[in-house]
Design brief:
The chain is mostly helical. Helices cover 73% and strands 0% of the residues. It is globular and about 35 Å long.
């Protein structure tokens, strides 16, 4: 199988994270609960705000942004990937 043909199974990945790093899993669950009622526009605004804050504090750099993009991409449709690329370009400026 070619790497480009690999499709991650979100349920398996979730269980793997939960088993290997329960603290991270709990933090993700808390964040999901916090943002579950946000609209797409509100989520985008919050993402940009938090990302820019982290960049200013030296907690986020171009390498990490690219890593986030590469990590999320296997779970997204082509349209979602394009939106993610646009978002990452906005915070990478």
């Amino acid at each position: 199988m070619k790497f480009s043909e690999f499709k991650a199974d979100p349920k398996k990945e979730c269980e793997k994270i939960k088993k290997e790093n329960p603290e991270t899993y709990d933090k993700v669950e808390d964040l999901m609960d916090k943002y579950k009622n946000y609209s797409q526009e509100e989520l985008i605004q919050e993402f940009i705000k938090e990302s820019k804050k982290q960049k200013q504090n030296g907690e986020l750099d171009s390498f990490q942004i690219e890593n986030i993009k590469n990590t999320l991409s296997p779970y997204l449709t082509d349209s979602q990937k394009q939106n993610l690329n646009n978002l990452m370009d906005m915070i990478n400026d």
